[in-house]
């Protein structure tokens, strides 16, 4: 906060003794550009400024000042009632001597217009404090962070002065949106006694489980079929019924006939006289 000054930094006119001047923003170095005649529109592009050979025309220090003071009420000048007056000015000064180069009373949002092709450049409408003549110049910041801070300060000033449109995007909007999302967050935790069922039938895990179960059933089924074809064990000696009798021994005639038949099959014959008998 600056100490009370005798003159208004923006106009050079004397200030009331109770005036309070606050520095809201300061950028030590910005560049000033002259706008081509074709730039008389509501949108501006910084490329059309920087391409001119005469630009930049000046390097200045930028300050945003808020001045607050009490003014007598216009409805009843004779009464002791006063109104608090607040105004904001954008000053372009010499970087070392602080000599005023130009001032822009921030009375509307259109006083400062961001460029469409760069966030570091703005179109600024300045005003001569004595003749009230106006002109539009271009200003450019060297750092994006400085340009961002400048825009945030002007946005807060516009809210305080009351000429910011309600549908204008605010810097606090993301925080409020995040707060609403946090409040709307539902609790999906299981309460006491509650259970959860997971259906894996259409997943690779479900197919793997079904394949393993099918293979197990086939193995068990095959073993069951083999068991069904198993032969019954022979009956024990203690089982009921008489045991089988062995066959009777052959007689001597059958034994001789069998030997003779075997000798003929092997090519041995007794001959006519029975030499090999």
Automatic annotation (TrEMBL):
GO annotation terms (biological process): endocytosis
InterPro entries: NECAP_PHear, PH-like_dom_sf
Gene Ontology cellular component list: clathrin vesicle coat
Domain of life the protein comes from: Eukaryota
Gene3D superfamilies: Pleckstrin-homology domain (PH domain)/Phosphotyrosine-binding domain (PTB)
Region Disordered, annotated ranges: 164-186, 212-253
Pfam families: DUF1681
Location of the NECAP PHear domain: 21-200
Full protein name: Adaptin ear-binding coat-associated protein 1
The species this protein was found in: Podospora australis
């Amino acid at each position: 906060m600056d100490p009370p000054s005798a003159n208004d930094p923006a106009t050079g006119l004397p200030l009331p003794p109770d005036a309070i001047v606050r520095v809201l923003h300061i950028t030590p170095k910005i560049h000033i550009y002259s706008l081509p005649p074709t730039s008389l529109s509501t949108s501006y592009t910084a490329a059309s400024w920087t391409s001119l050979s005469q630009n930049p025309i000046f390097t200045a220090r930028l300050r945003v000042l808020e001045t607050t003071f009490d003014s007598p009420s216009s409805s009843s000048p004779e009464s002791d009632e006063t109104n608090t007056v607040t105004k904001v000015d954008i000053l372009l000064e010499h970087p070392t001597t602080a000599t005023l180069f130009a001032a822009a009373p921030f009375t509307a949002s259109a006083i400062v217009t961001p460029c469409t092709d760069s966030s570091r450049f703005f179109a600024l409408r300045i005003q001569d404090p004595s003749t009230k003549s106006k002109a539009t110049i271009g200003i450019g910041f060297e750092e994006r962070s400085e340009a961002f801070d400048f825009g945030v300060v002007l946005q807060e000033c516009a809210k305080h002065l009351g000429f910011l449109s309600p549908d204008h995007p605010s810097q606090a909007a993301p925080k409020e949106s995040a707060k609403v999302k946090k409040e709307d967050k539902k609790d999906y935790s299981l309460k006491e006694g509650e259970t959860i069922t997971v259906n894996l039938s259409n997943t690779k895990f479900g197919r793997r489980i079904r394949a393993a179960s099918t293979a197990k059933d086939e193995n068990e089924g095959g073993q069951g079929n083999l068991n069904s074809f198993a032969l019954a064990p022979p009956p024990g000696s203690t089982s009921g019924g008489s045991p089988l009798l062995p066959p009777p021994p052959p007689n001597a005639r059958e034994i001789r006939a069998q030997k003779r038949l075997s000798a003929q099959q092997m090519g041995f014959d007794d001959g006519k006289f029975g030499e090999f008998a």
